[in-house]
Amino acid sequence: MAGRNAGRYSEHDHEHYERPRRRTRPRTKDRPTYDDAVDAVVVTVDRGRFTLELDGAGPRDPEAPRVLAMKARPLGRKGVVVGDRVRVVGDVSGEDGALARIVEVRERSTILRRTADDDDPVERVIVANAEQLVIVTALADPEPRQGLIDRALVAAFTSGMTPVLCLTKADLADPEILLSTYRSLGVPWVVTQRGGDLGPLRERLAGRTSVLLGHSGVGKSTLVNALVPDADREVGHVNAVTGRGRHTSTSAYLLPLPGAAGGAIIDTPGIRSFGLAHVRPEQLIEAFPDLDEMTEDCPRGCTHGAEEPECALDDALLEGRADPDRVQSFRRLLAARSVPEH
What we know:
Elements lengths: L1 H4 L32 E9 L2 E6 L11 E6 L13 E6 L9 E6 L5 E4 L9 E5 L3 E7 L7 H14 L2 E7 L7 H7 L6 E3 L7 H7 L3 E5 L6 H8 L25 E4 L7 E4 L13 H4 L4 H4 L19 H7 L5 H13 L6
Parallel strand pairs: 3-5, 8-9, 8-11, 9-10, 11-13
Antiparallel strand pairs: 1-2, 1-4, 2-3, 4-5, 6-7, 12-13
Helix pairs in contact: 2-9
């Protein structure tokens, strides 16, 4: 066949030449420098549009104009989340109808992420560049759920964020019962109640970017409205039958804190579950420093679970050196990676 076709086309026939390949346009290595780009912080995200606050000198200005932007095509599938530090070009006037473009996402210092459930392999980045994770938990109405507290602590420790326990509705229950469980971890805490003094909480938040995380109905939106009076975050109520709150905030939102001390809070939607499929089992014990030091004598490959035959945590329990509640919480997290949370 090859011999029969040999010489079929002369050099003057168009079939003689190789057909042009697709996308043969020469590509340049030069990329736009965006010398005119300005720095900004992502305040909120809504259906592919990003509200930004332009960076300025000194603390964030609550009166600073907000800029609406979209993601530039060269960024591809790179995600942009609340708290991201970005560079933006285009119309940054903040006027109605103005639209800018995000052309670069700066390197993130911290990432708060979760999966929808423990068996969900897809990670969801919630917030970037926050320094503190404020875990908001009601002492009553609804009852505190240690599962979320433990999971949020793991998320904070593995992301490099400082966790802070914020216990609300102290007028309804004694905080000491819950605090006694977590005191050995050395986690900072504040206690609040409706109409009470928020001074200790403001001190924890001053000069830092903090994420507020909690179940619906725990009083998170009430706190946000008290800390930032013009926030206008909708306040939810707890269902008397289920004991759970309804979702009020529908998206994460960064709010500058008023006052000379500066800082900002990121309000997140109330959550029902906090999956940890992205956290490796060996990372979990590192989130429990009081237990981690007790596992030095564990055999190699020990996961420190309840089924491990020679786990040093069991010896520590028998000798009274380990807090049974902490061991139970850790092992519940370990087991929850393969059992859906209810």
